[in-house]
Amino acid sequence: MSPSVPLDSVSVIGLGYIGLPTAAVLAQAGKSVVGVDVKQANVEAINAGRVPFVEEGLESVVAGVVAQGKFSAQTETPVADAYIVSVPTPFKGDHDADLSYIDAAAHGIAPKLTGGELIVLESTSPPGTTEHLAEVILEARPEFTMEPNLRNSLYFSHAPERVLPGRIMIEMVENDRIIGGMTPEASELTRDLYASFCHGELLLTDARTAEMAKLTENAFRDVNIAFANELSIIADRQGIDVWELIKLANHHPRVNILSPGPGVGGHCIAVDPWFIVSSDREFSKLITTARNVNDSKPGIVLDKVLKHADRFKTPTVAALGIAFKADIDDLRESPSKNITINLANSLADGTVLVVEPNIDELPPELAGRDNVELAGLEDAVERADIVLLLVDHAPFAEFDRDKLQETVLIDTKGLWR
Question: Contact 52/42 with Cβ under 8 angstroms?
């Protein structure tokens, strides 16, 4: 039985790709939600019913709950019944997790606590991070305890997100959810909160297992993608069409090889496996190898482009797509973006035409360069000596392939085979 703790008001710390949709669906479910973000521009946009990034269906929900007075954003942490921490966990050093954003969130929450609050860590983290969050808060507020059902009790848990960019508003509601409490009571409270909007099965466990489960899901995909990427390198050296090869192999009833690409991107699959590695470097050999294979693929793609570019005095390369996956504007950990940056660095006498239909301006790493332009698809293909397809965005799939016959085509996604 869950402790008798009200969960009517919720503060979501971090209004990024996961935090903002989480806040929106909680407000839509009837909770009174205050989101917290360090960027004043994001706060102002959200309070005006706008969202600072592209995600199908999100802006209409945000606009609705803001208009209803159920959701607002600010830069300071408020008093709330429950806190959801959804802040970045980037790398530091040798792929160790940088927990400074989590520490900052904890220090913002600690002064607001009165007892009985639920603190949920959503940020993808190495095993033991929820314990770390609890330690930071309890060190700041030693009068509180994790012993349940007392006036000065605090409840800590981990509830990792499991959504796909481009489908977040659907999957946040429909997907099963793993919930791991530091205590059984914390798990039950978190289940009660997430049941307000999640129609999937809510699977209760302990915090460390929940942390490891999210990492395991993405490491599994990373290992499988690494097999496909390594296979694509070998097939190319053997003069074999890797996509035909995979299609034929997948006719076996127990074989399901994924598709290769220019690498692996995004803030999940490209990052999470390293958190397993950092927690046990001695026995994570397969996961480490898979990460190294996928991290090496952008360099192999770049070498292939530069080999063709040597044929031209002042080569023009159309780089199609710099998002980390199709039909989104998310550039985080994008191998396509990194390939394009390195291509621009390597072609001092050439031009790189960036075609990314989901952005209006180049990212800082590419903006302001004399040899880089943000271009439309038709214009870029017409001007290019080399067309480099990096992301299988829908507009690229619909493009008239007859217009590609006069260029060198390097298709890393098999879209125009």
Answer: yes
DSSP state of 261: -
This prediction has a pTM of 0.90
Residue of 268, 297, 337, 413 with catalytic role: 268
Q: Which amino acid is at 91?
A: F
Q: Can you tell me the distance from the alpha carbon of 31 to that of 301, in angstroms, rounded to the nearest whole number?
A: 48
Q: Is 346 helix (H, G, I), strand (E, B) or coil?
A: helix
Question: For the chain, which domains are there?
Answer: 9-200 (3.40.50.720), 242-411 (3.40.50.720)
Pseudo-torsion of CA 396, 401, 407, 412, nearest 10°?
50
Is 268 assigned a catalytic role? yes
* Residue of 256, 290, 252, 260 whose CA lies nearest to 273: 290
Return d(Cα 383, Cα 360) in angstroms, integer. Answer: 20
Helices (H), 323-365: 335-346
In sequence order, what are the beta bridge partners of 409?
387
| Beta strand 177-181 pairing with 386-389 | unpaired
In whole angstroms, give the CA distance from residue 230 to residue 59. 39
Are 183 and 190 a contacting pair, CB within 8 Å?
no
User: CB under 8 Å to 343, separation ≥6 — which residues?
Assistant: 302, 305, 306, 317, 319, 352, 388
Write down the catalytic residue from 214, 297, 337, 413: 214
Under 8 Å CB-to-CB from 136, ≥6 apart: which residues?
A: 102, 103, 106, 107, 110
Helix (H) or strand (E) holding 207: helix 207-237
pLDDT in tens, 309-323: 999 999 999 999 999
How many residues comprise the chain?
417
Q: Please give the Cα distance from 417 to 410 (Å, whole number).
A: 10
Tens of pLDDT along 63-120?
Answer: 999 999 999 999 999 999 999 999 999 888 888 999 999 999 999 999 999 999 999 9
Report the amino acid identity of residue 258.
L
- Token readout for 346 is 């390597």
**Is residue 309 within 8 Å of 318, Cβ to Cβ?**
no
Compute how many other C-beta atoms are within 10 angstroms of the C-beta atom of residue 208.
17
Residue 133: Cβ within 10 Å count: 27
